[in-house]
Amino acid sequence: MRNLIFALLLLGGLTSAKTYIIPIEGEIDGPLAVFVDQSLSRAEREGASGVVFQIDTPGGRVDAAMKISDRILASPLPTLAVVQNAFSAGALITLSAQQVMMLPGSEIGAALPVTITPVTNTMTAADRKIISALRGKFRSVAEARGRPSNIVEAMVDPDIEIAGLKAKGEPLTLSAKKAVELKVADAEVASLRAALEKAGYNLSTEEITPGPQVRLARFLTDPTIAAILLAVGVLGLILEFFTPGTFIPATIGASSLVLYFLGGYLAGLSSTLSILLLIGGLMLMAFEIFIAPGFGIPGIVGLALIAASVYFTFGSESLQVGSYAIIGLAVGVILIFRFVPRTRVARALVLESAVSQTAPPRSELESLLGAVGTALTDLRPAGTAQFGERRVDVVTSGDFIGRGDSIRVIQVEGTRVVVRRVQS
To answer: 342-371, pLDDT tens digit by residue?
Structure first.
């Protein structure tokens, strides 16, 4: 009798287990892959009777879609994909579920991998190696779930021709009715509830929605936002160097870089290696710009390290992020050196000498030719120098001269005083 009661209680516990619903909406990206992994782990841990993926996506990152696909295939729970739209990377995720149901007006396919050209934002088909690799992934997923591999491969490769269904030249996209007819999907249903009933899932459901952490990660790892954060971070550090002691540009720059790293960390994209590469690259670039001006080995290696860091973090989107960051950095530098010194805020930040407010007469400056003095500030290449009791704005011929170094006036052109370091 006791065993019978225990069996009934156990059966009741199993039948009361909920169906967990995981939405896969918007662009497929790294944070979404983390969210799906965490959601499936929770469903498995809490003994869900099954998991339903509500899919409505235009596609996104292939690497993120592969992670989600592998995670779904590895889950011991029954899985069902209910499709509104499953294009590109979304098609791979859909096909990874054990059952697929199509909603009215839904479509699946158009999975040709593309590359986005920065600035113009135009899309072109990826090279044949990438297409072949993704085609193989679609084929293996189709075989694992018992779906027609030739139909699935045609979603990826435009060169595949299927008589009466698809001509050569563009990837395959299927309507709900056609997907069911070709056994890519199991049924066409009117609603989510109808899909649950037809698949035999518990109608008692619980939806898992992305939390603040996932939403923040998706925002920060958007290619445009990430590029802006990276550019502002570098600009802030550069501006702090020219306005030492204020800490405002450094605070803004450091905060931007922290957000840049935080987005990649929360999305599971940034590794310790990528962070160290970026820090090392920035240090080498600072050395090249401020300590040993020119364009030598430190600058080249620094750029390479920064590029490697962006690549390891953003993968296929690294070219887009890097290009936007370079453009933003270039525009920012131009604006800083052209307009910022004229503003009231800049005048409050920058330490100005009294001599800079009223330039001495030209005849007085010409008398300085050949004079030897001391650099009062770092000359990068402009700054202030002391000649006897006179403080004068000077500029080098391009070399960096440190504060306290001895200098000689080698040329006077109007109000422009050119100096050179006096070799000891």
So the answer is: 554 455 444 444 344 445 555 667 778 888
Question: Are 371 and 326 part of one and the same domain?
Answer: no
What's the angle, vertex CA 348, arms to CA 346 and CA 350, rounded to 5?
Answer: 65
Q: Is the dihedral of CA 272, 285, 330, 235 positive or negative?
A: positive
How long a stretch of residues is the chain? 424
Same domain, 243 and 372: no
Asked if 394 and 385 count as a contact pair (C-beta separation under 8 A), the reply is yes
CB atoms within 10 A of CB 207: 12
> What CATH number should be reported for the domain holding residue 165?
3.90.226.10
Q: Looking up tokens 């085609």, which residue turns up?
A: 135
DSSP letter for each residue of 385-411: EEETTEEEEEEESS--B-TT-EEEEEE
Helix axes 318-338, 223-242, angle to 10 degrees: 30
Residues 194 and 243 in one domain: no
> Rounded to whole angstroms, how far apart are CA atoms 72 and 41?
11
Sign of CA dihedral 22, 23, 24, 27: negative
Paired tokens of 335: 């604006």
Q: Considering the entire predicted model, what is its pTM?
A: 0.67
User: Could you give phi then psi for residue 85, rounded to 5 degrees?
Assistant: -150, 130
For residue 115 the two structure tokens come to: 């590359």
Q: Tell me whether strands 19-25 and 114-117 are parallel, antiparallel or unpaired.
A: unpaired
Contacts of 280 by beta carbon, 8 Å cutoff, 6+ apart: 302, 305
Which of 210, 234, 265 terminates a domain? The answer is 210
**259-284: per-residue pLDDT in tens?**
888 887 777 767 778 878 878 887 87
CATH of the domain at 412: 2.40.50.140
Q: Which residues sit opposite 21 in a β-bridge?
A: 52, 207
Dist CA 86 CA 90 (whole Å): 5
